[in-house]
Design a protein that fits this description.
Blueprint lengths: L1 E4 L2 H10 L2 E8 L2 E8 L1 E3 L2 E6 L3 H8 L2 E11 L2 E14 L6 H11 L7 H4 L14 E16 L5
Antiparallel strand pairs: 1-8, 2-3, 2-6, 4-5, 5-8, 6-7, 7-8
This protein binds flavin-adenine dinucleotide.
């Protein structure tokens, strides 16, 4: 196996093609990672959520890290680490264009609303009015790729 860095264009290609990512946030020195659905546009990753721990933590500390991976085989993979900043897109004047963009981009992902809209205990949390859109502004990213040097 050979590991090499991905160019910025290769990083962007993987990020744009990905539907699922691992979102890491942290609070008071405690990291927290969860899978989320994402849609990339320009220099932002858009996503959707119900209120909960990750949103509380990102509001308190907007610096986040996102991992995007593509595993073909054990010896062949690509991954991108995105360093970014959480930006909430509230349902308020001044955010309409960004919310519409989030909606438009996420619509391209099958069932994009489902995993982020469900909680283990049904209750007031799942009422439609509490959901939120947000985006991660990409500050910088790095990418690596492993290729199987034994093949062919
Ligand atoms: C493929 C996939 C796509 C997803 N897409 C989205 C998305 O687009 N938007 C979205 O909001 N969520 C999505 N989820 C669900 C997400 O991973 C979280 O479970 C969910 O967002 C709840 O996170 P929270 O911080 O609000 O948890 P809370 O409901 O506040 O609960 C916090 C507690 O639950 C635990 N917990 C939370 N989530 C998980 C988990 N996945 N596994 C184990 N323990 C957990 C935490 O450790 C903590 O103890 C997706 C999950 C998968 C597998």
């Amino acid at each position: 196996m050979i590991v090499k860095d991905l160019s910025r264009a290769e990083c962007l290609e993987l990020v744009a093609a990905s539907h699922t990512a691992r979102l890491a946030c942290s609070l008071d020195g405690q990291p927290y990672v969860v899978p989320i659905t994402v849609a990339f546009d320009d220099s932002f990753l858009y996503s959707f959520s119900m209120p909960g721990q990750k949103v509380d933590w990102m509001r308190a500390n907007p610096k986040v890290c996102v991992l995007i991976e593509d595993h073909r085989q054990r010896s062949e993979w690509r991954s991108v680490v995105v360093y970014g900043t959480f930006e909430e897109l509230p349902d308020k004047i001044g955010f309409k264009r960004e919310r519409d963009r989030a909606w438009e981009m996420l619509q391209q992902r099958a069932n994009w609303w489902e995993p982020g809209g469900l909680k283990p205990v049904p209750g007031p949390m799942v009422s439609a009015s509490t959901h939120l859109f947000y985006r991660i502004a990409i500050d910088r990213m790095t990418g690596r790729q492993a290729v199987d040097d034994q093949r062919g």
